[in-house]
Amino acid sequence: MNPVETGKGLAVITGASTGIGYELAKCAAQEGYDLAIAANEPRIQEAAMKLKEFGIQVEAMQVDLATRDGVHRFVDGISSLGRPVDLLMANAGVGLGHGFLDENPEDAQRVVDTNITGTIHLAHAIGNRMRTRGSGRILFTGSIAGFMPGAFQAVYNGTKAFINSFSLALRDELKDTGITVTCLMPGPTDTEFFERADLMDTAIGQGKKDDPAYVAKVGFKAMMDGEGDVVAGWKNKIMSAAANVTPAGMLAGQHRKMAEPGSGKAN
Questions:
Q1: CA dist., res. 3 & res. 205, Å (int)
Q2: Can you give the residue ranges of the Ketoreductase domain (predicted)?
């Protein structure tokens, strides 16, 4: 990465090649922030070219944030810019469908490493720099999936439950530091997530989904307003509220109806 010197400040976004991550980067670019973006695929460079059209500086890295080495490389790249990070949007994440015992354990571990391990290592590195400076905003992409035991998405939902909880705990720890922490909790969103997670033959995979641009705008505004958490979409707000008063066993059964392979045939 080469130093960037223009713009309102520096925003760091992971998982920014497509979907919610790309739209979050667009929100920051529209506000005049320079960008440091990352994803584990070559399309991150295509995203960077589009984002430069907003007249800001964009530095992009293809890096695997599921690995400790990948996180270190990205943090080193950010450091080489010689600028403080004003906004951190930790959005990188992957899903995985099917029953847990039918999954490749390496695939399940990758979900944990991407959604949890890489996220907390990145947040620790950037968060400490923000604390030293005494300012900064952090946005984690959680999910309403974190409110319910995810039958046939057990590992993914478990990782999002962690992110939801972790972000609110970190927010409290940092409440007197000048740093705000926000958790964006979207519902099903129209991205490549369901295809990549092999969920296209399920009810949730074939069901109606939210616009990623809308979801990103909701999350970005909540972060800039210093809110603790936000659920995107009124239907998702109802679902998350209901999940708080519904027995866990019943929630798991309801999730089975949405995520069990072949459930999409009933639609």
A1: 41
A2: 9-191
